[in-house]
Write a structure and sequence with these properties.
Strand content: 15-25%
Helix content: 25-40%
Strand order of the largest sheet: 4-3-2-1-10-11
CATH superfamily: Metallo-dependent phosphatases
Number of domains: 1
CATH architecture: 4-Layer Sandwich
CATH class: Alpha Beta
Shape: globular
Number of helices: 7
Structural class: alpha/beta
Number of strands: 11
Length: about 240
């Protein structure tokens, strides 16, 4: 039976070398034996564009490319930290970019894949910022600036986000139930997998009279989280 792995929210950064090494070990020991690896957003702490120096991340990216060349299918979805990863990055790492929402099929069963931030509709301020950052005109203007200037802008945005997060109620930063239900209805699936909230769990709920599941992946810098998926009724959400 084919094994598929799902991870998200690694937030790889040079100041967390242990997490980078954990990812490399995971690639070599677990992903190398899988059919596919899905990275559902926030692979890195932030990404300035495909000319990013990627300080400290070269070994990890090279390992991804090697495994891809050896036959591992790697799929990468943008998160709220790395939405500027483009085709040059995909070529460099051997991954295929997929866009949210994405429906993958396993054994003829459709599964909805998301990063998950778009489901957090109660966080109005964040959703306004998300619209701005995903605007092609804003991105083109940002990418036209020198790398050093982009880095300073990213640091400022991250600082602002951290300050705002400290003052927000925890439930505001979680998914909105109505948004989740609507995502199931729009996609016509019974299984959803996403990250972003850093709250790993398997939720079972009723939508339009049908029982559906929502699997939430955890982050890596405080939890360690991977979903090993062999089928709709054969999966394991693990922490390490």
């Amino acid at each position: 039976m084919s094994k598929h792995l799902f991870i998200s929210d690694l937030h790889l950064a040079p100041e967390r070398p242990d997490i980078i090494q954990l990812f490399i070990t995971f690639l070599k020991d677990q992903a190398a034996n899988a059919e596919s690896l899905y990275i559902l957003g926030d692979l890195v702490e932030y990404w300035l564009g495909d000319d990013d120096n990627a300080e400290g991340l070269t070994e990890a990216f090279d390992c991804m490319k090697q495994l891809s060349d050896n036959g591992l299918a790697i799929y990468l979805m943008h998160g709220n930290r790395d939405f500027l990863m483009g085709e040059a990055f995909a070529t460099r790492t051997g991954c295929k970019l997929i866009h949210e929402p994405f429906i993958a099929e396993f054994d003829k069963t459709p599964v909805l894949l998301m990063h998950g931030d778009i489901l957090c509709t109660d966080d109005v301020r964040y959703q306004e910022l998300r619209i701005m950052l995903r605007n092609p005109a804003w991105q083109a203007d940002f990418l036209s600036k020198p790398l050093a200037e982009r880095e300073q802008m990213a640091i400022a945005l991250r600082k602002q986000s951290q300050e705002e997060t400290q003052t927000k109620a925890a439930d505001i930063m979680d998914v909105n139930e109505a948004a989740v239900n609507q995502a199931f209805i729009d996609s016509d699936v019974t299984l959803m997998i996403h990250g972003h909230t850093h709250r790993p769990a398997v939720h079972e709920l009723e939508v339009n009279g049908s029982t559906v599941k929502r699997i939430v992946l955890g982050d890596w810098y405080s939890q360690g989280s991977v979903l090993e998926f062999n089928g709709v009724d054969d999966f394991s959400l693990k922490s390490f």
